[in-house]
Each structure stands twice: as structure tokens, then as C-alpha cells.
Amino acid sequence: MRIGRFECKSVDFGVFRLDGGAMFGVVPKVLWEKRIQPNKLNQIPMATNGLVLSDGDEHILVDTGMGTKLPEKEKKIYDVAELDASPETALAKIGLAPGDITAVILSHFHFDHCGGSTKLDGGRAVPAFENATYYIQKAQWEIALNPGPREASSFVLDNFKPLEDAGALKLLEPGDNPIDGIEIIVTNGHTLGQQHVLVKDDDSPLFFCADLIPTSGHLPIPWVMAYDNEPLAIMDEKEAILKRALSENWLLFLEHDASNHTISLKAGKKNLEVNEIIIL
Question: What is the dihedral of CA 168, 173, 178, 181, to 10 degrees?
């Protein structure tokens, strides 16, 4: 699908599993399981959908999945035995190679969003996209280097520190829009300095939800994750984004939804609902 000046394609970095209760916070299981069915361990499937924006000369990747550096213990915890998250494999499915990527925009540094940004070379983590400039919010960079106990396990230095060491990382401030045709929108409720790509288009702009709205099951305003640092703040942010999305006819790219990668919205009786599922 062409949106604005870009040809937009989803990239499948594989599926892992997380506890359904953690993914829906205070929402009772009897409600959330109607939207996403858990397995016997109460886990639900979580996609790691990346987005590639191409204009012929540039190939911009938004988020990089979990990567291939996870220890065996964590592979078992997150049920990623079948995950083939290597950039080579994922990009080959859409006719690209890691060396074709010219920019990587990372929503934030939690390991399931940026693990594929680096790879092991002789036991040392190095940038996985050798020709790319990586973009992250300065606030996210600073908190990732000095996280509190709540987020510490989500930040893995080997996923992002080698980007700075290689001179490939650029820090952004709110309001910075380094790539023509893309607006960067910052939210702070999930983690400080989470950034979202809005691909500009006169008819249907495309918004990369990241962990603001991880799945279509999280469209109701109060349905937020236990992983969100500031649940009240993210509710306000979500409400503002969804109002704008409905009024401006945005498409929503859902990074963690294993079934509905991209959706349009319609107003329901109580909440916004999925109007159409779109394949990128």
C-alpha cells in the first residue's frame, strides 16, 4: 500500500507469548479473553510486526523485533522456540536485505522492540543494519541507561549501546522530524520518550502504535497494560490519539497484534471498534 511518498510493507519478526493478565492489567480475564484467547498457561500470542517505508532510494525500518540474541532461558519464558527473528530472514520475505535499510526508527528500547537492532559478530554485539542511521528519543536513551527497578529487565544494553559506539545513533527531541513525510509523535505513559511514526497522507495517514495500543484488544481507553509505567497518563494519551485517528481517517499499525496488523476505525456504542482489516 502506498501512503504519502512511501510504499508501506509489514515485516514479520515472529510471535512470542506473554501473560494475558499482564497485557490487560486490571481488566478481568472474563472480558479480555473474548478478544484474545489464552493458552493453558494464560499466555496470549504477541506478534512483533515491523514496518518498512520505501520510496525507491530510502528504506526505513520501524522497530526490529526481538532479534536472535535471547538466552535459552528467556526463549522458554516467552515461548519463542519457533521465532525466526533474524533481519535477513524477515526482510528477505519482502525482497530486501539488512544492507538496504537506510534508517531505523525505534519506538523505544524495550527488548521486544529493538532486539533485532544489533547482532552478534564474534561474540560482540554490533549494528545489524550496517548502512542505517538509528533514531531514538533522547529521553528514552537516558532512561534506558539508568532504568528504575520496574523497567530494568526490559532494557538490554547489547540491544542499543553498540549503536552509539558505532556512531550510528541519533537522539531526537519532541518536535524533531528528521525524515520528510514522517511526523514523530511522542508519548510517555508506557515508557518515557516512546515515539510513534505517523506516515503523512492526504487521505489515510498511517500511525505506528507501538505499545500505546499494542493490539486491537486495547482499543478501549481503560484497557491498558500492567507494563505501562503511568496507566492514567497513557489513557489520556490513547484517548487523544484515537480521537485524532478517527477524525483524520488514520490507519493504525498494531505492532503486537497477531491477526490484525493494520486497521481502520469506526465509532461503536461505547468504544472505537475495528472497521476494516488491511493487509500491508
Answer: 140
* Reported pTM: 0.96
Task: Identify the burial level of 20 via C-beta atoms within 10 angstroms of its C-beta, where 0-12 means exposed, 13-18 middle and 19 or more buried.
Answer: buried
Residue 112's closest CA among 50, 164, 168? 50
Q: Which residues pair with 195 in a beta bridge?
A: 186
| Distance separating alpha carbons of residues 233 and 227, to the nearest angstrom | 13
How far does the chain reach from its first CA to its final CA, in angstroms?
6
**pLDDT tens per residue, range 100-125:** 999 999 999 999 999 999 999 999 99
Give the burial string for 35-72 (b: 16+ CB within 10 Å, else e).
bbebeeeebbbbbbbbbbbbbeebbbbbbbbbbbbbee
83 in Cβ contact with 32 (< 8 Å): no
**Residue spans of alpha helices (H) in 175-274:** 231-247
Structure letter (DSSP) for residue 270: S
Q: Does 271 score more than 90 pLDDT?
A: no
In angstroms, rounded to a whole number, what is the distance separating the alpha carbons of residues 147 and 166? 22
Residue 227 predicted with pLDDT over 80: yes
Nearest one of 119, 129, 56, 54 to 97, comparing CA atoms:
129
C-alpha 231/C-alpha 223 separation (Å) is 9
Q: How many CA atoms lie within 13 A of 142 on its CB side?
A: 8
